[in-house]
Amino acid sequence: MAVGNAVVDDAAVGDRPSGARRRRGGVTGRQGGVTRHNRVGYALFLPFLAVFVVTIVAPLVYAIYLSLYRDQMIGGNVFSGLANYTQALGDSLFLSGLSRVGLFLVVQVPVMLILAMLIALAIDSGRLAGAKIFRIGVFIPYAVPGVVATLMWGYLVGRQFGLAGSISADLGIGLPNFLSSGWMLATIGNVTTWEFTGYNMLIFYAALRAIPVELYEAAEVDGAGEFRKAWSIKVPALRRALVLATTFSIIGSFQLFNEPSIMQQLAPGVVSTNYTPNLYAYNLAFNGQEYNYAAAVAVVLGVVTVVLAYVVQLWTARRERVL
Amino acid sequence: MLGSRPGQRGRPGQRRNSPALTAVMTLMLIYTLLPLAWLLISSTKNTPSLFSSFGLWFGNGFHLWSNISEVFSYQNGIYLQWFGNTALYAFAGAGGSALIATLGGYSLAKYKFKGRKLLFAIVLGAISVPGTALAVPTYLLFAKWGLINTPWAVIIPSLCSPFGLYLMRVYSIDAIPDSLLEASRIDGAGELRTLRTIAMRLLAPGFVTVLLFSLVATWNNYFLPLVVLSNPRWYPLTVGLASIDAGSTGPSGGIAREVYPLVITGSLLAIIPLVVCFLFLQRFWQSGLAVGSVKQ
Q1: Over chain A, what is the mean pLDDT?
Q2: B174-178: long-range contacts, CB 8 A cutoff, minimum separation 24
Q3: Which of A111, A163, B90, B238 has CB 3.0 to 4.6 Å from B222, enough for a Cys bridge?
Q4: Which of A12-16, A29-33, A48-52, B189-193 has the highest mean pLDDT?
């Protein structure tokens, strides 16, 4: 019994503030053999711990270290405290990129998530002929690399030989130049929407499928109609999935790199080297050799992302938190 | 977990199909499939036909086979090399990360070792650390260790999947009853034997799911290889294709139009393996996401 409970408690660890309802006593005071088992437990976790330290902890610590130094013409690497950070926070190139992805975040993410939710509700409704085909068809762009998706859409909406070009030339309909500076962010938003709507749809769909049938039956007995059922049963069931999808979308938006970087090739001059903060950090480091400053920019970006991801968590009820 | 949830045994009252809903959803399906259809059609065109024919219909002649052979003969067959590199990175990186995440998730779920809650909390926090923040220091660290321009520079970072660990932990709690492990221990089976004969079998569906999603992450990876590789010999397909495209618009803006069929056909070939994987392994990705979004 105690073991069973420990597992259940354990399952909810992410949802509770640390310290609340912990029962340390149970861990050590059990029958013999536990210590030996636990050693095996450590051993099984060790490979993960090793790659975690090498690929995440070490680079993170190194990034923070780098960001506190400056490479100067005279004197080489010099400790500079928070100078790189104050520079970043006043750097209009960095801030304009940041506000651009901020704009992207507040427009593209809601559009994508609402679209994904509606599709999930439609597929789950049981009123769709060939639901399976829709599920796969909408999801399949997820398997296409971002680079290929961007090249494809870039060619497709480009003026030269794409569909937009064909429509403009052959059908005589004047379409805007989607690769111009006025349209570029929307075009990139379209590419990411195309790529990830299906993935998010599946997250929502999975949440809908997990609703117990009894709940619907009870609602029907109570005389609830379709919309009533959708509103009172399905939408609440989607909340946790929505938190998960929003969190991942925030992380993804702030990391925006592949799409603008490929668009830079397709429309030279439209996408600047600081178009997104990530692109800016990349160019600082690998075209400008400003590794220290690039590290500071990356750390600021990371902090902004983590803070926003946690704000989403704070907004939601505790039991629905995912992190 | 798989196919056994009550909700999957038929919804209440089979309802009639709604033509309006089907029509709206068909529009959505057209949106998702249109670019792929365009890619497929365009890969059958040569350069003049690409520029002269309507985007969504075939042009003069059928040039798919000659386009494909052009892709494979480009720069002495470097495309095939990129394909092989991608497969290597995907299988080593995704296979390794799925295995490591499975062992780790299982140990967190089924062993009560000290500090496991703290470890798990740290790993969860790491999910929201953007890869960006890590790219520059990873490059510099790998440069120090002499790993730049080797396959290891791409494989090692793909081995760590915090989200995979999270999924496998939740999955382990669900899929392996404690009583089964107790019984196996009472029968005198060692921990590793229990893991191999009982746990691994029960965890197999979760493992395949994590493998599939890691496969996508590594196959489609662009940022990391772009940073740590500069020798075209080690490029994966994504970086290779982007480099052909970058070559197509010269520094002066002069465009080598001949390159377009190459990029288009190369892109088509690059997406086929994963699309096929997803079509055949539907059971796994569809149930796998349920674990992450439903369970706590």
Answers
A1: 82
A2: B174/B1, B174/B291, B174/B295, B175/B1, B175/B202, B175/B203, B175/B205, B175/B206, B176/B106, B176/B109, B176/B110, B176/B202, B176/B203, B178/A3, B178/A4, B178/A7, B178/B110
A3: B238
A4: A48-52
- Distance to chain A for B73, nearest Cα, Å: 20
More confident residue, A264 or B247: A264
Q: Is the pLDDT of residue A303 over 70?
A: yes
Would you call A298 and B18 a contact, using CB atoms and an 8 Å cutoff?
no
Q: Which residues of B touch A286 (CB under 8 A)?
A: 139, 227
One domain for residues B32 and B99: no
B120 and B258 inside one domain: yes
Nearest CA in chain B to A43: B107
Mean pLDDT to the nearest integer, B176-202: 81
Q: Which residues of B touch A194 (CB under 8 A)?
A: 31-32, 35
Q: What is the CATH number of the domain that holds B207?
A: 1.10.3720.10
- Confidence band, pLDDT 50/70/90 cuts, at residue B193: confident
The answer to whether the CB atoms of A203 and B292 lie below 8 A apart is yes
Question: Residue B28: which domain range?
Answer: 19-62
User: Are A276 and A154 contained in the same domain?
Assistant: yes
Q: Min CA distance, A98 vs chain B (Å)?
A: 14
ipTM of the complex: 0.86
Task: Give the chain B residue nearest A237 (alpha carbons).
Answer: B294
Same domain, B161 and B217: yes
> Which class for A168: exposed (0-12), middle (13-18), buried (19 or more C-beta within 10 A)?
middle
Judged on CB neighbours under 10 Å (0-12, 13-18, 19+), A76 is: exposed
Whether residue A67 lies inside any domain: the answer is no
Domain presence at residue B7:
no
**Does B179 share its domain with B240?**
yes
Instruction: Give the per-residue pLDDT at B8.
Output: 39
Q: Give the distance from residue A104's alpha carbon to the nearest chain B alpha carbon, in angstroms.
A: 17
Q: Do A126 and B114 touch (CB under 8 A)?
A: no
* A177 & A286 share domain: yes
- pLDDT band of residue A323 (cuts 50, 70, 90) is low
Same domain, A6 and A107: no
Overall number of domains in chain B = 2
